[in-house]
Design goal:
By secondary structure, the chain is mostly helical. It has 7 helices and no strands.
């Protein structure tokens, strides 16, 4: 126990103390000020958010029709929305008020999960197609090998080999 107290005393003297600038924090999200931190705050007034209903989450069925680029853009928008919701939830917890529209977090999470599902389906389909292509290629190679069982070379291959040798001998001269 004494060792922990010594470490705590040493640690408190060495750590950097953060003093928040309350005036600057109060300006975040206000009209007329532009800050990169505004992306992490919901700029819609609280009263308006309380009156409006939240939309629904994206279904996997809807997302299957989207291109990869559209899914990537939607993922980015949902990721920003998720960060904004987490910031608002943290502020609500710290200031002791109830978060407005808490169901948004679940809808964003479900939409992101649907995007992951659709991308996983596409990846599995692409891998299955590639495996089928490799299997077909292997069957084709076996069929070609069976056609040439006797060890006899095809006349075309012999002619091509002779022509290649001629060209090589002409180049050397």
């Amino acid at each position: 126990m004494a060792m922990i107290k010594r470490w705590m005393k040493w640690n408190t003297s060495k750590t950097w103390r953060y003093t928040p600038n309350h005036d600057l924090i109060a300006q975040i999200g206000k009209e007329g000020t532009k800050s990169p931190l505004d992306e992490f705050r919901d700029l819609v007034p609280r009263e308006k958010r309380e009156a409006e209903t939240v939309g629904r989450s994206w279904s996997a069925r809807e997302l299957r029709r989207k291109s990869y680029d559209d899914l990537h853009k939607l993922w980015y928008v949902l990721y920003k929305e998720k960060n904004m919701i987490l910031t608002e939830a943290n502020l609500a917890r710290r200031h002791g008020y109830e978060m407005v529209q808490p169901e948004r977090r679940k809808k964003v999470r479900k939409s992101m999960g649907a995007i992951k599902q659709v991308l996983g389906e596409r990846k599995r389909k692409k891998l299955a197609d590639h495996r089928a292509y490799l299997d077909e290629l292997e069957r084709f190679d076996k069929a070609m090998a069976e056609m040439n069982l006797g060890g006899e070379e095809d006349g075309i291959e012999e002619a091509m080999g002779e022509e290649a040798e001629q060209l090589n001998s002409n180049e050397k001269l």
